[in-house]
Design a protein that fits this description.
By secondary structure, the protein is of the alpha/beta class. It folds into two domains: 39 residues, no CATH class; 193 residues, Vaccinia Virus protein VP39 (Rossmann fold, 3-Layer(aba) Sandwich), CATH 3.40.50.150. Bound molecules: S-adenosylmethionine.
Length: 248
């Protein structure tokens, strides 16, 4: 049986994008039976890609993922959807450090009918960027991004969007118990700072997803996190999506 495909040609860290795309096109032409995922530095074939049949999740992604990059990272979104769905069954609230435009959190809210949940979702970001910051700027950082994200979650009275620097801001606003924690700060220092405050608050069975963990551009994060978790008797699973996964 022919499997469905997901191809959005966004790949990172290339020398020659056109030469790479040409090679991909040639490879794809040689695949029997589909099951091709091509994007976000993943190339699979002859896979079931069963998540493409998850209509509710695919509808939420189609509605809220507006850029090619947001569509290319579908498999990361699928991992988050699974993790958050497990989190719905655990004790505690949801946290994302950091949310940027709020895209992945907005998809999860829709997918999980989060407005009907008695949990809260805590989102953090700086929303703006200047050259003194250790992480890189992103296209939509700016003075109006915080308001835009507030507006994006206006229908969810149980989502709290907080502007400020992690980890410091976590001393002012953060839940006591966490069921699902998504960390995506592009900075080893900030991520270890977040773990220092939040990991102990994760309840048994709570899920942690580290977005940058497997990307060699963020190798320092994996080094720092491996050491931090080893000291506590935990090990992170590096996923083919580049994310790290840990179940407490
Ligand atoms: C890759 S983006 C997050 C994307 C988001 N997780 C999503 O799935 O759509 C990384 C974000 O981390 C934020 N950031 C980096 N360091 C931070 C810090 N110390 N405190 C708060 N936000 C920070 C940046 O402003 C940026 O928006």
């Amino acid at each position: 049986m022919e499997s469905p495909n997901h191809m959005v040609g966004v790949f990172f860290g290339l020398k020659d994008e056109e030469a790479f795309a040409d090679g991909m096109r040639k490879s794809i032409r040689q695949v029997r039976n589909g099951g091709i995922y091509a994007g976000d530095n993943i190339f699979t074939f002859n896979r079931n890609l069963g998540f493409l049949q998850n209509q509710k999740l695919m509808d939420a992604v189609r509605k809220h993922a507006s850029t090619a990059t947001e569509r290319a990272i579908l498999w990361r979104q699928v991992v988050l959807a699974w993790a958050a769905q497990q989190g719905m069954k655990r004790d505690g609230d949801f946290v994302e450090c950091a949310c940027y435009k709020g895209t992945t959190a907005r998809i999860l809210c829709e997918y999980l009918d989060f407005d009907k949940s008695d949990k809260r979702y805590y989102l953090y970001d700086l929303f703006e960027h200047d050259e003194s910051m250790p992480h890189h700027a992103m296209e939509e950082h700016g003075a109006d991004l915080y308001e835009k994200v507030l507006n994006r979650f206006k229908d969810f009275s149980n989502v709290t969007v907080t502007r400020g620097a992690v980890p410091g801001v976590l001393h002012d606003v953060a839940p006591e118990k966490i069921a699902f924690l998504h960390i995506d700060l592009n900075s080893a220092e900030a991520e270890i700072g977040a773990l220092e405050i939040l990991f102990d608050r994760m309840t048994p069975g709570a899920i942690l997803v580290l977005d940058d963990y497997g990307w060699n551009f963020y190798y320092q994060q994996q080094r720092a996190e491996d050491a931090w978790f080893a000291a506590r008797g935990y090990q992170v699973l590096e996923l083919p999506t580049g994310q790290g996964l840990l179940i407490k």
